[in-house]
Amino acid sequence: MDKFTTLTGIAAPMPLINVDTDMIIPKQFLKTIKRSGLGVNLFDEMRYDSEGNEVEDFVLNKPAYREAQILVAGDNFGCGSSREHAPWAIKDFGISCVIAPSFADIFFNNCFKNGILPIALPQEEVDKLMDDAERGSNAIITVDLESQTITGPDGGTISFEVDAFKKHCLLNGLDDIGLTLEKVASIDTFEEQASQARPWV
Amino acid sequence: MTGKTLYDKIWDAHVAHEAEDGTCLLYIDRHLVHEVTSPQAFEGLRMAGRQVRAPEKTIAVPDHNVPTTAGREDPSNMTEDSRIQVAALDTNAKEFGIHYYPVTDIRQGIVHIVGPEQGWTLPGMTVVCGDSHTATHGAFGALAHGIGTSEVEHVLATQTLIQKKSKNMKVEITGKLMPGVTAKDITLAVIGETGTAGGTGYVIEYCGEAIRDLSMEGRMTVCNMAIEGGARAGLIAPDEKTFDYVMGRPHAPKGAQWEAALIWWKTLFTDEDAEFDKVVTLKGEDIAPVVTWGTSPEDVLPITDVVPSPEDFQGGKVDAARRSLEYMGLVPGTPLSDVSIDAVFIGSCTNGRIEDLRAAAEIVKGKKIAEGVRGMVVPGSGLVRAQAEEEGLSEIFEAAGFEWRLAGCSMCLAMNPDQLAPQERCASTSNRNFEGRQGFRGRTHLMSPAMAAAAAISGKLTDVREVM
């Protein structure tokens, strides 16, 4: 997995609540057996018209945000399905950090498996970053995972919370399966005890 | 020390390892797999030279992509990308030695209908699947939730998930439901009350007289949409109805093991002195037959109400409602029962079980679908379909003008040929009304099977109580 340490990049504003996984990557793009190549279809039905032409006023089509690496969004971002194609598409587009007042549970977890840092902040702080992001290509924000701070274009900083284990994995680009297999003895023991206690499982 | 909730008890019985910071390895008893969210996970195993740790606890079935029309066992009747995904599942199931129900097997169907039907889902289990509607299995008092593809790979390789415990939330539905009100109305009404993020960070336990009174099918409908309220999982404590449903199913325990299982299952309830972090209570008699008007499952109103105005809301919801109304082509103030529909979809993991088809057939019997409306009934599994045919339900639907389809996810998510056309408006028994969910620019109104059936007959959103 890609490491996430610090990121300095353009932040794109998407002040919409309940951005769901069908918006992020519509179902017709789930028919892939690969993880890559989905960036071109990120937000497909908002980003392109029915002829496949770019919708001019969609944020990621605007010249200032085409290279965005950070997304600032509304409440409950990523609600809906468990499709990991959503973070795959976000990452493939080039966005590695999403900031919102809250995230849906499965999407939030999926981000960490793909080198994406989702940051939940109080509404007023998201509002401030949303204002910053509205400044187009001047909206350069720095996210530092080690120190858990976001620095806005004016130099003001905001602190954020992140689970210590998830932070450790992101900073080091660690593979979950490898980490878990280090504890295989615990799994073996549990499995043996459980098969005695609940042999019908 | 305070007592434990049902969630606490199941959780505690499955922790294989706990780190100092509370990060746990949760052991997984059943892993359900479908063709859309698994190919990359199996590929990951292959690349790392790993095996499936517990193939006997892993069950695969294709459901999202498969057409629901005759001749689908011939791969040339699928689009190339769908064919590749289904073929990949076929190959992976054989190569890794997991249980598999291909489309040629009568037991094939939507993964969340097949699991309970075959007795794979049992009380007290942990159940996961790369699909958010895994919450369905919570109806059995199993801790069940959706996971992403990386986690699918993690479970395949280790039979565990890295998890931190969620908080406990109680949703109590007191008293009795009024006539015409169903499990679907309960679950939609709860989301209308809590919002789609109201359950984020929680596992919900549904309880109360109205929940106890539900059949297992109804309880599955309620738990199915726990995710639509943002919760990690929904749970209902097992009782005699649960045990009756499970007994005798192909993979349910038998004989002495059944007796042993029953002893444990009967301890799976929330202790009287247990504490919840959040409690929501609705009166059963206050719940009306509801429909959704917008593009979020929280956009719920009684059918007797009118289309709301964006100004009725606050904060970010004002813009969201404006966007929803434009997408849905609705004018504020319009009575919901005046909204004409073009299509009706009865099916999905929310409402594709036999009881759902019975409820719809009851309304449809002896009547015809309104002129210009297309209707589709898609049983949740081959076995549901066979039972419906045996009970004469398929004849009722076909006589009314519905298409009687083969089992699959169908128009719930439109990854297969069953889709809405742009601007086509659908009365749907599915679970999501997101933009484009049932087809590009399609318009979805969520409701119960009886309400969808009533809409099919009248050609508009209809209060089922008027036609009962």
Largest sheet of chain B: 5 strands, parallel
Alpha-carbon Rg of chain B, integer:
21 Å
| Portion in helices of chain B | 25-40%
Rg of chain A, Å, rounded: 19 Å
- Element pattern of chain A in H and E: EHHEHEHEHEEEHHH
Biggest beta sheet summary of chain A: 7 strands, mixed
Detailed description of the structure:
- The complex is a heterodimer of chains A (201) and B (468).
- With 201 residues, chain A is of the alpha/beta class.
- Chain A contains 8 helices and 7 strands, in the order βααβαβαβαβββααα.
- Chain A has helices at 21-24, 44-47, 85-93, 105-112, 123-133, 164-172, 176-181, 184-197; strands at 6-14, 70-73, 97-100, 117-120, 140-144, 149-151, 157-159.
- Chain A has a 7-stranded mixed sheet.
- Chain A starts with 5 loop residues before the first strand and ends with a helix.
- With 468 residues, chain B is of the alpha/beta class.
- Chain B is 32% helix and 16% strand.
- In chain B, the strands form 5 sheets. Chain B has a 5-stranded parallel sheet, sandwiched between helices. In chain B, strands 17-16-15-18-19 form a 5-stranded parallel sheet. Chain B has a 4-stranded parallel sheet with strand order 11-10-9-12.
- Chain B starts with 5 loop residues before the first helix and ends in a 10-residue tail after the last helix.
- Classes of the chains: A alpha/beta (201), B alpha/beta (468).
